[in-house]
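Supplementary material to the annual report.
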Amino acid sequence: MSTRFVIEGNSGRARRGLLTTPHRRVETPVFMPVGTQGTVKGLSQDLLEELGVEILLGNTYHLYLRPGVDEIRTLGGLHRFMGWPRAILTDSGGFQVFSLSELRSVSEEGVRFRSHLDGSSHFLTPETAIEAQIGLGADVIMAFDECTEYPAGAERVRASMETTLRWTERSKRYFEAHRHEVPWTLDSDSSGSAGGSSEGGQALFGIVQGGMDHGLRKEAAERTISIGFDGYAIGGLSVGEPRALTREIVESTLGHLPADRPRYLMGVGTPEEIVEYARLGIDMMDCVLPTRAARHGLLFTTEGRISIKQARYTTDERPLDPRCACRVCRRYSRAYLRHLYVANELLGQVLNTVHNLSFYLDTMRRVRHSI
Amino acid sequence: MSTRFVIEGNSGRARRGLLTTPHRRVETPVFMPVGTQGTVKGLSQDLLEELGVEILLGNTYHLYLRPGVDEIRTLGGLHRFMGWPRAILTDSGGFQVFSLSELRSVSEEGVRFRSHLDGSSHFLTPETAIEAQIGLGADVIMAFDECTEYPAGAERVRASMETTLRWTERSKRYFEAHRHEVPWTLDSDSSGSAGGSSEGGQALFGIVQGGMDHGLRKEAAERTISIGFDGYAIGGLSVGEPRALTREIVESTLGHLPADRPRYLMGVGTPEEIVEYARLGIDMMDCVLPTRAARHGLLFTTEGRISIKQARYTTDERPLDPRCACRVCRRYSRAYLRHLYVANELLGQVLNTVHNLSFYLDTMRRVRHSI
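Predicted assembly:
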């Protein structure tokens, strides 16, 4: 085991836990901000620390294309490259290959695609995906999977699940053979004063697919568990299905995951959803929503959502959210934030992101305290 | 007198002083970052405070067009609107009307122009320019002038100078009649713990024009002084003339300005130039160079300039400037900053701006300490 996961409290199905990674102990349930290209868009690492971010997500697909895994490995890995001493999780790149690149072909071996940046040709396999993630050196890395599209017929869903299971097995095998190649060493220094563990290296999580079929989800969970991982993710959701269905699948899949390992729901969700899923027993979530919405002027508050571009805020002196204690709500008015948005000022995107992330992190903090 | 200006030390022609404004005591010589639309692009007011910024510049032209002077006045003035408790200087809007808008016509009365934002028609006069600046409520405001183009014939330069002098006189007259309309009151609270003065309100500076003609500069200085202002600016430079000529004109104009009032050189300059002009006896400067260059990846360091996009920095782990103690140089490598630039990430613009401004402010701090 490369991570230790200790459950410190329960409330209904919800769990409060502590995930010890090489770079940081992470309190769960946790929301992980997305730092696609090695940066949470617009926010300095100082600010992320101040917001209390303990773990963030990096996208292997983006970093693999630019600046490149070799460059980051040469510089000591993603933590050093970014100047971020706390925990990082990287995805396997599979989801982005499907959603962003010009996809050339999926074979048993892997996925051939063209870069969305320059059209260059690449081949991603379970082995190269894990190799890349070892080179980046995140604390938690993900097995290479195929995200099944929605809707999909029964045969397609089963075939896709079987592909994912074979890729999952190959991911595990490659990881076990190469995990020592991580670009950092685990001396007591690198684990930091905040209490990382020096007991192990990277952790590998498996991803459970199976579309919207309860039976296949159960089978995928059991077969993934039998391969054996440090934690388990639920993938292939939030791909266009109705929200009620997402919840059903999450709930039923959770029933088949071991209680003593972290459970990660990928790519979710709204503030209401992250609370709901934490209550169902999810330990980790990530989503671009708070950061992307912020850049588009959509702000989350305890009184609902605000679209800051609206003319009604032109001379509104109130803070975004009177009940929020973030740097933005302590200092700036809605009128100022609206002006920044309308004038297309960089600072608008920065401040909106600070607030939305703060709102998400506060929300999760309250959930933890309630467990 | 609305500001107090005390000279605390001299070294050659250079002066170290203390400019007391309603919102902040400002150590001079000072470099004022440019916050065109009520924000120094990309930097939060928290960061500006941390960098030691005591006074920044707002552009009346931009704020007049968006969000509008009435909106800002309603919200208590530019300080409250921005959440910036320290000093602000606004320009008169004249320079930007000439450089940004579709200029319709200059008459004795003022300047008719079309907004660069929406083509709407506006008429700016000495009276409306001062009215706008009173409404914005900066600590230091500027008389309305005509910036003479370069090159210009002798007759044109004299005519333009005469226009500026008549507009300067009208600016002063309007200011004296309306200065009480400033949107803040000078109770001990608004002056802040950092020691603003509650003795007076806004200060009005006159601008000396006169092109590249030493005789006209002398005449413009003397006639502006006889109208009487709290401080004096040298305008109409950095408009395309050779640098040696700029320096000559600055030097000769300075000789005609009173020693006991602050002297402000507008729109200047490089790090080398701000040092040079401070040594000549200039007390205040502003320039978009550090912030604009930062957004284009051009960075100032004690070892010279760095164009961060260059491939040579791809795996360069060194800080931008090993002798710089700013947040950026303490935490991030050139490789990371290059990646952010190449990936067109917001954070690149933010961090580059923090460094460049820090470099300028440190430079000026060293100049002050040397006097």
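Chain B touches chain A at residues 37-46, 66-67, 71, 74-76, 81-83, 314-315, 317, 327, 331-333, 335-336, 338-340, 342-343, 345-347, 349-351 (CB under 8 Å).
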